[in-house]
Specification:
Blueprint (H helix, E strand, L loop, with lengths): L5 H11 L2 H4 L5 E2 L2 E2 H18 L4 H10 L15 H23 L4 H8 L11 H26 L1 H10 L1
Antiparallel strand pairs: 1-2
Helix pairs in contact: 1-4, 3-4, 3-7, 4-6, 4-7, 6-7
The structure holds fe (ii) ion (2 copies).
The site of one fe (ii) ion (FE2) has 5 residues, from loops.
Length: 164
Amino acid sequence: MKYADTKFMKIAGPLINNKEFQKMKTIKHHDESVYDHVVDVAYHSYKMAYKRGLDWESTIRGALLHDFYLYKFDKTPRVRLPYDALKHMIHHPIIALENATRLFELNRKEKDIIVSHMFPARIPKFKESWIVSYVDKYLAVYEYYLNFRKLTSKKYREAYQRAQ
Ligand SMILES: [Fe+2]
Ligand SMILES: [Fe+2]
């Protein structure tokens, strides 16, 4: 496991080891998997919540399940992409919540973290939800940046030219 933090792992472990949860490993998110993305978001949100004396347990659980939508998004034909992207943006938190409540017992805060992580689509009700929404966006920008760096790197450009 990437994050060897006992407190984090005590709460995250039971979710991460769930068979359905593991399915996120097969779904792509930018240049990694949704699984890697949610674990990163959960860890960094946990650090922020813990430092501020907030409910870090709910923060970890909500963050781990915030993108638990379990469908593949990259097979969409190009022309429909803007419409589907918008639909995905608005609906995936609701689908994630439905999947999560089917498998796990969640408190109000954890549910709010999931449905409101796409702020401004929905307004977060708790400080913990604001943290997860912030970390999710922050990491998304960072993941795009890494992807951009990879695509513009000399090694990648040369490989691309060779393939032409
Ligand atoms: Fe999301
Ligand atoms: Fe996310």
